[in-house]
């Protein structure tokens, strides 16, 4: 009988939005499907996410975050990855920096998804002082996964609408990797209106790469979280940055395609659940 190893463990630092799949309700199931245990450090508790759904409830859980971290520290828990996403306030940026200082080891990964903006605009709940704080947090990451709007904000540049040129994308990648992270995955990259994908930059190999899929119309909510969670699942399963970026592009695109074909409200999140078998095949965890 094959020996069963303990699963790898991720500290997932995101909000819990009850309806409208994103953040923890996306990260935990995707990581679990890929054989990875996720411990939740919730940043806020909402009835729905804030993207285009009005009347949501919002409980800021900042005051619980340090006590969670202290308790986990007292238990001597090891995390194979620290994965942060939507943070509820500027004060939480310092808490996550301290969490990284406490739990970072030589051989674990810090992935920061600098969730704060899209389509040229900062999400409404954030004030402009959130941006320099997020820039500081990104400096402590091994991998960051910004979209184009977040990349421009992190670099203190004006947002440019699509389509993009390779020169502009390479300029963003160089600037972002200059902030400190060894690896950058830039999402929402497109050179034409037919395709959409990501660009990667790996300072450890000096290689930049691209992964594209045919574009599906509409702006689907929560796809950044699906993407970053699948990317981390690839990395923790031993795939390279370029391979993991491609696996996550295919999984996110499949999730969007199913949602589009079903005609689901674009605010409700994408159907990532029924793509799990394909993801597991791509991760070579199951075979045809
Ligand atoms: O998917 C990003 C995200 C996560 N969490 C909350 C959000 C958003 C984007 O709007 O509102 C609460």
Jot down its keywords:
11 strands, 288 residues, nine-stranded mixed beta sheet, UDP-N-acetylmuramoyl-L-alanine:D-glutamate ligase, alpha/beta, two-stranded antiparallel sheet, binds 3-hydroxy-5-(hydroxymethyl)-2-methylisonicotinaldehyde
Overview of this protein structure:
Strand 10 and strand 11 (207-214) form a beta hairpin. The protein has 9 helices and 11 strands. Helix 1 (23-33) packs parallel to helix 7 (223-236), helix 2 packs parallel to helix 3 and helix 7 packs antiparallel against helix 8 (241-262). By secondary structure, the protein is of the alpha/beta class. A 9-stranded mixed sheet has the order 3-2-1-4-5-8-9-10-11, with helices on both faces. The protein has a two-stranded antiparallel sheet with strand order 6-7. The model has no long low-confidence stretch (mean pLDDT 97). The protein has one domain: UDP-N-acetylmuramoyl-L-alanine:D-glutamate ligase. The site of 3-hydroxy-5-(hydroxymethyl)-2-methylisonicotinaldehyde has 14 residues, from strand 1 and helix 7.
């Amino acid at each position: 009988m094959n020996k069963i190893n303990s699963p790898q463990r991720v500290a997932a630092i995101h909000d819990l939005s009850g309806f409208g799949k994103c953040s923890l309700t996306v990260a935990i199931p995707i990581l679990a499907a890929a054989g990875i245990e996720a411990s939740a450090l919730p940043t806020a508790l909402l009835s729905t996410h804030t993207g285009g759904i009005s009347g949501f409830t919002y409980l800021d859980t900042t005051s619980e975050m340090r006590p969670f971290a202290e308790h986990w520290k007292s238990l001597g828990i090891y995390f194979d990855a620290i994965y942060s996403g939507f943070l509820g306030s500027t004060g939480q940026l310092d808490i996550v920096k301290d969490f990284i200082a406490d739990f970072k080891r030589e051989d674990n990964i810090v992935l920061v998804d600098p969730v704060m903006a899209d389509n040229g605009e900062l999400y409404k709940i954030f004030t402009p002082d959130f941006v320099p704080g997020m820039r500081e947090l990104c400096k402590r990451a091994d991998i960051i996964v910004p979209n184009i709007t977040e990349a421009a904000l992190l670099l203190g540049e004006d947002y440019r609408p699509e389509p993009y040129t390779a020169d502009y994308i390479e300029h963003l990648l160089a600037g972002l990797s200059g902030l400190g992270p060894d690896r950058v995955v830039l999402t929402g990259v497109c050179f034409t209106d037919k395709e959409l994908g990501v660009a990667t930059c790996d300072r450890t190999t000096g290689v930049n790469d691209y992964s594209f899929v045919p574009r599906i119309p509409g702006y689907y909510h929560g796809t950044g979280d699906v993407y970053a969670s699948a990317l981390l699942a690839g990395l923790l399963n031993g795939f390279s940055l370029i391979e993991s970026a491609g696996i996550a592009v295919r999984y996110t695109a499949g999730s969007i395609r199913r949602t589009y074909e079903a005609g689901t409200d674009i605010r409700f999140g994408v159907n990532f659940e029924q793509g799990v078998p394909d993801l597991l095949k791509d991760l070579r965890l199951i075979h045809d």
